[in-house]
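Support request, please re-run this one:
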Amino acid sequence: MNKYFEKFGAIYKEELKDSQKARKVLDLLRGSEEIEAYQAQANTIAVKRMGYNDHGRTHSEIVAANGLKILRILTKKGEKPSVVKDHGWGYEDAQIVVLVAAYLHDIGNSIHRDEHEALSIAIARPILYDLLSTQFGGTKLHLMIAEILHAIYSHADDVECLTLEAGVVTLADATDSAQGRSRIPFKLGDIDMHVISSQAIDEVNILQGDRKPLKLELLMNNAAGIFQIERVFIPKIKTSGLKDRVEVVAKIGGGKQIVKEFRV
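Re-run finished. Output below.
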């Protein structure tokens, strides 16, 4: 297990400490040979053949863990998950929607990068029935799968998120923008502006906001990271349905100097 699994495993432990069913679902996700194979193939397509940043298992782990953290901060600040409002479910159910959607959102890259959101749905649907039928039954199982598929599909930059959970997954996807995201193409020597800008971002901190419920704070070693924020962060925030709840701040020099505060 690499350093990313260890770091974000600690986040899982904290976020899911009171959520026994969600912990079981996480174990099923992590233990699935089928899911792991799709995640590996996603990087064969996206990274090795097309030159994109990581879209494999490490990316899935990071997005899922960060999604759970974002969900907690937003709900603590008064936001209500859509599955709670619309279905009368509990917070743990919202956690499961975010967790599973985040973990499977990019597996469609195993077929092709183009329209990978729709391809992810096609691959995920049968997996979800096998995975979640151990925890849910009847109408709730079908509705749970529909909510997860919406969150997977809506992580596309040009698709409007219609639930809090989908918005959380979209924001969490953007948070994997630090040096680690370009870990594979950088090692392969595939250097472009996306890799350079990703390497410029040392860390993304997910915090309670000062002016808005959520703050995304990016610590950069040079200003090239601004490109990553403008090309990755901002488009996702705009379609997340949560742009009025998020503030984005870029800092440089060990986090001491604010370079830019972004207005979405």
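The longest strand covers residues 201-208. Residues 181-186 have pLDDT under 50 and may be disordered.
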